Each structure stands twice: as structure tokens, then as C-alpha cells.
């Protein structure tokens, strides 16, 4: 079971609205007990709250989890995003604070959350490589970057994986990015496999839920996306599984190097996700599913226009 799924912890720190800390910790423990050992976080999730939460969850389970940490996003005290910083000195500072919040002596996979347009990727990766040599980081990853950046980064230090949004309705990486990753032997940690709940019919819970500001969840776009949601639900019902499980199973079937990051905030959500491991999709079933839920039909971009403009992976 360890092959398949990473537990994404972002939603445990307010990005999807209120969450229960005790249930979040119980979910992390349940994941570890079920063999899901890769925990994904960012030092800016809840302005450090997420790392502190994970640190508490792992206090009595030292060495039981692998930690994948993103860094670089700058946030104001009220929660706003105010920039990005991947300068070498900042990289080492961010890492220092993450080690303390998480209560560990090293990070398993450390990655810039985005490309800093003001800093050559060689400088950022070089700084992380220094941390690898010093024993504070085990492996280096990337997030939401395109082919040129991947090649340049990998030339400085081997890259273990790329984290990028990938789902049955967000298939952009397949054209240029995935072939390069295969060439270089780089894995994928795929987030947004459920399109942040869109594919399962989830609606934003309120203004504190960042999905309320995402184009695919807006009024007219949401109406246009409903047929895709309905099609996935219909095929899932025919197969006797839940839509979320089918969406995860689709991602798993697209390549052995793809590890879905599942943002379960509750043990029940985790159990649903783990059910996807039992689903095997034949090539014919994959083709049928992709025809019924075509990525070309989705209305709205992954992020708002300003955020899309900062995605190196979209260039």
C-alpha cells in the first residue's frame, strides 16, 4: 500500500475552511498505520501551523514518516500571499525554521513551491544541495515548473520528483513535462487529483475556503463543469465505487511513477482514498473514462489569472 498515496496536509490548516486539530492528528496517525508514510506540507500552510501540527502528530512516532516540504511563499499575518523568495540565504533560513516546527533533524524532500523569477534556479537548487551535503535534507524536489527549469535544476543536483497538479480534467503535464520526467527518471507527486473536490461535487464552504476564489468553482463555470462531475459519478456507480476512488484510481493507472497526493482531513476521507488502491482499470476502461470526462471540456483555469501567470509549468 505504500506505493500509491501521499497524505497532503494543507487542508488541515484552514485552506478549506475550519478543521479539527484532533481529527487531523488522528488522520495522520491512521495514514501511518495503513502504510501511507509520505506526508506533504508547506512551511506557509497556516503560516507555520501545518508544520507544528505535523510535529505534534509525529512526536511519539519519530522516523515513521517521510516529510515532503515546500517553501518560498511569503504571507502576511492576515493570511495574504505577498510574494515569493527562493534566494539561497532564504532557503537555508526557511529550512531552519521548518526543522524546529516539525521537530526533526532533517527533511526527506525539500522543494521550492514555485519558481522565483528573480533567482536563477541553479542558485536555489545549489543552496538545497548544500543542505543535502550537511545532512539537513535527503532529496530535492520541484513544484509547478516546466521542462527548461527541470533540466537546469537536475543539472545542478539530481531531482527526485516534481509536484504538479494532475487530474483527469487537468492533463497539461502529459504533453511536454511527463516525457521529460520519464527521460530523467524523475517521479511525480500529483496534487489536485480530485480537482480540489470539484470532481466529487464538493462546494466551497465559505469565504475562508480558498476554492471560493478559484475559476472552476465560480457560478457559470461550475454549471458548465457539472456534466463532467455527473459523468464521473455515473461511471463510478456502474463500477460500484465512489467518484473520489475512481479519480484516484485513474491517476494511479497513468504511470507507476505517479503518486497522488490526497488531501484527507478526516479518517473517513482517508479510508475512501485508500479504497482506490483496490481498483484496477483496464486500458479500455481508461479510454472510456477519459472520453466521458474530457479535460478539453473543463470550464475555468486551475488558478486565478494572476496566479496562472506565475506558473512556470504553464509556459
TrEMBL record:
Keywords: Oxidoreductase. It comes from the Bacteria. Pfam families: Aldo_ket_red. Residues 5-292 form the NADP-dependent oxidoreductase domain. One of its GO terms (molecular function) is oxidoreductase activity. It comes from Hyalangium minutum. GO terms for cellular component: cytoplasm. This is Aldo-keto reductase. Signal peptide: none annotated. InterPro entries: Aldo-Keto_reductase, NAD(P)_OxRdtase_dom_sf, NADP_OxRdtase_dom. SUPFAM superfamilies: NAD(P)-linked oxidoreductase.
Amino acid at each position: 500500500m505504500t506505493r500509491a498515496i501521499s497524505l497532503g496536509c494543507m487542508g488541515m490548516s484552514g485552506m478549506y475552511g475550519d478543521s479539527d486539530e484532533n481529527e487531523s492528528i488522528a488522520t495522520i496517525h491512521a495514514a501511518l498505520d495503513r502504510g501511507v508514510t509520505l506526508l506533504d506540507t508547506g512551511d506557509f500552510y497556516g503560516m507555520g501551523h501545518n508544520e507544528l501540527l505535523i510535529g505534534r502528530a509525529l512526536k511519539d512516532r519519530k522516523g515513521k514518516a517521510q516529510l515532503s516540504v515546500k517553501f518560498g511563499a511569503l504571507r502576511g499575518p492576515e493570511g495574504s500571499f505577498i510574494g515569493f523568495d527562493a534566494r539561497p540565504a532564504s532557503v537555508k533560513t526557511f529550512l531552519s525554521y521548518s526543522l524546529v516546527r516539525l521537530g526533526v533533524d532533517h527533511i526527506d524532500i525539500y522543494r521550492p513551491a514555485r519558481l522565483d523569477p528573480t533567482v536563477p534556479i541553479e542558485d536555489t537548487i545549489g543552496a538545497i544541495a548544500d543542505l543535502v551535503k550537511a545532512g539537513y535534507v535527503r532529496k530535492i524536489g520541484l513544484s509547478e515548473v516546466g521542462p527548461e527549469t527541470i533540466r537546469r535544476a537536475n543539472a545542478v543536483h539530481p531531482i527526485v520528483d516534481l509536484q504538479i497538479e494532475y487530474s483527469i480534467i487537468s492533463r497539461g503535464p502529459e504533453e511536454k513535462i511527463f516525457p521529460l520526467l520519464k527521460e530523467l527518471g524523475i517521479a511525480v507527486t500529483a496534487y489536485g487529483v480530485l480537482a480540489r473536490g470539484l470532481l466529487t461535487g464538493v462546494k466551497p464552504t465559505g469565504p475562508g475556503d480558498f476554492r471560493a476564489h478559484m475559476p472552476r468553482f465560480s457560478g457559470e463555470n461550475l454549471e458548465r463543469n457539472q456534466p463532467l462531475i455527473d459523468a464521473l459519478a455515473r461511471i463510478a456507480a456502474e463500477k460500484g465505487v465512489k467518484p473520489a476512488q475512481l479519480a484516484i484510481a485513474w491517476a494511479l493507472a497513468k504511470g507507476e511513477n505517479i503518486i497522488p497526493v490526497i488531501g484527507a482531513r478526516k479518517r473517513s476521507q482517508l479510508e475512501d482514498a485508500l479504497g482506490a488502491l483496490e481498483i484496477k482499470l483496464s486500458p479500455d476502461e481508461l479510454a472510456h473514462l477519459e472520453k466521458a470526462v474530457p479535460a478539453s471540456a473543463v470550464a475555468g483555469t486551475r488558478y486565478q489569472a494572476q496566479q496562472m501567470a506565475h506558473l512556470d509549468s504553464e509556459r
